[in-house]
Amino acid sequence: MIISASRRTDIPAYYADWFFNGLKQGFVLARNPMNARQVSKIPLSPEAVDCVVFWTKNPQPMLAGLRRLAAYPFYFQFTLNAYGEDIETRLPGKNELIGAFIRLAGLAGPDRVLWRYDPILLNGRYTLAYHIEHFEKIARALRGHTKKATISFITLYSKIREPARRLNMRAPSPGEKDMLAGNLSNIARENNLLLEACAGERGWPAYGVLPARCIDGDLIAKLSGRCITAAKDKNQRPACGCAASVDIGAYNTCLNGCLYCYANRGPGVAEKNMKNHDPASPLLTGHIRGHDVIHERAGPGGKAAQGCLFSGELT
Prior knowledge:
Elements: E1 2-5, H1 11-14, H2 16-25, E2 27-32, E3 35-43, E4 51-56, H3 60-63, E5 74-79, H4 94-108, E6 113-120, H5 128-142, E7 148-153, H6 161-166, H7 174-190, E8 194-197, E9 210-211, H8 217-224, E10 246-247, H9 269-274, E11 293-296
């Protein structure tokens, strides 16, 4: 089973103690986003977990406990953008986050920390030239501390329509995407980075920018030394190449305050739910109620059957 921790919230930034308590207990519980009464019991023993994929914009609260992951294959998708507090309202400063990236890579290794520069949006402040300039600054700072960068472009979901209108945020046009892909791919190559494009984008093969697999079965196989049998994740967008995983997070619980966020319903909802967070509870927020139905989760993916050979080394 591949654990996604989490596309729905920033577990390393706000729920690290809860996650490590789950490792100690051997499981966590997660509510079905479509039916809150349905609860999955997700095993977290080393025998059950193929890999843990963390998604974060600030892993600092997790760094001191990283040694607790010694028995698990894992890697981080670390989003580090060039936006200010007008867009990413509660994140630490960029120099602090770059330092956190470098410290995490020093502890985990550069293969286990992947840089995300996404989503890319445009307005009067965040122009094409701005993104090219600041992508290069960050790429230079991260040189040698990661091997891959992933880009994507903003999707203007209905729940972010108001901040998008207020800040004149827009998605780049096809021509602007092409221009950015060409420039950013050159910068990536100069800094020994492989540049990929996240789901929904066709990639730009002419520039060497191919579609990404953020939950990457091949990378997991290399990190674990095992053949991973996970199928394509049917719960993601059609263009997504990710392997199937089980997400242990919950929507409406991220406190980063990013105005482009798809995972929070609106202002204040995450703060309200955070009041119900108990690090000792197997649920991310709240506790089991009398009408809840708990199902043991047999997750997608799995370690290789005997005879499935693995060869290759991390590069």
